[in-house]
What we know:
The protein has one domain. 15% of the residues lie in helices and 35% in strands. The protein has helices spanning 3-20, 41-50, 294-312; strands spanning 28-38, 55-56, 62-64, 71-81, 91-103, 112-119, 147-148, 156-159, 171-180, 183-184, 191-192, 200-201, 207-208, 210-212, 227-236, 240-248, 261-265, 268-269, 281-283, 287-291. Strands 1, 2, 4, 6, 7, 8, 14, 15 and 19 form a nine-stranded mixed β-sheet that branches. Strands 3, 5, 9, 16, 17, 18 and 20 form a seven-stranded mixed β-sheet that branches. It has a two-stranded antiparallel sheet with strand order 10-11. The longest helix is centred in the C-terminal third of the chain and has 19 residues, at 294-312. Residues 12-25, 181-208, 215-223 and 272-278 have low confidence and may be disordered.
Amino acid sequence: MSSKKLLLAACGGLLLCAFCASTAKATLQIDFVLSGSFANQAALDNYLLTGVGLDPATDPKMGIVDHAGQIFMIDIVATVRGKNTSSQDDALQSIHGNVRAWADPQATQGALKQGHFVPFGAMDVSGTIQLFGNDPYNGSGSQNGKSQDLPPADGVIDQGSLPNDQVFDYVVLRAAKPIQYLQIGTKPPYKPNPAWFIDGVNSNGLPDAGFQTAFDPAGVVANAPMGTMLLYADQLNSSGTTLVNWLPRLDASGAIAVSAASWSEDGVANQQSPYSYPGAFSTGAPVELIIPEPASLSVLALGALGLLARRRR
């Protein structure tokens, strides 16, 4: 079977699983979170200078695409959950895979006719290339992968590789060492941040000790996410939905590769092969970028006019 057919077959199963990942008992989960959008490049440039110009997302999993040239900021959030009550023996060092966009199969087409991703994380160790990974996931071995429209083609240039293709074609976010006990900061020694604790109940009915690289269970920002990217909406379709998510590295058979992630739970390295998906390793639901159907926009407009008329009475 060709690499393209393998990726199409694998994507069909893996991307579908992304919708059910929230109910799976995953020990490592990679999640894409929409931070907001910029009206255009000038707004982004202003944000880089002043910190002002980002239109915050009202829904971390959905954004409305209303004009070409719009730029979406998306964060990569990783969560590791162990089974014991200790919070000091879970760690994450790297993830290896693809940054993907594709047309929602339940829609007539994607919202984006053309688009491309740009890394928006930290600089690499040489200080010359901006990466997808934020500090400390910008260590040696980190890379942005190959820019190409992976199948099924939708006009958006993805970052990544066909299954079992060149190792340098994949996106890699990697720390110099496994990041453990919520270690944060720009340089070692890192300082623990209690806001990263995951206080829940695991499958054994015990307190679930672990950490998350961006948000606590209440949604309070604790620190920078594992990685950050920009998605440029270069050209639009008249309507549709584009989905954006992480696709782990695949092997020649289309299964998740052993090198797709390196992490540990309860002090034990978790690099078993093959991975259970969703299960030991999963992705969250994709970010949805939507251009509503014209009829939907008319309904929304009529609703707004009706509300305005009621307020005037």
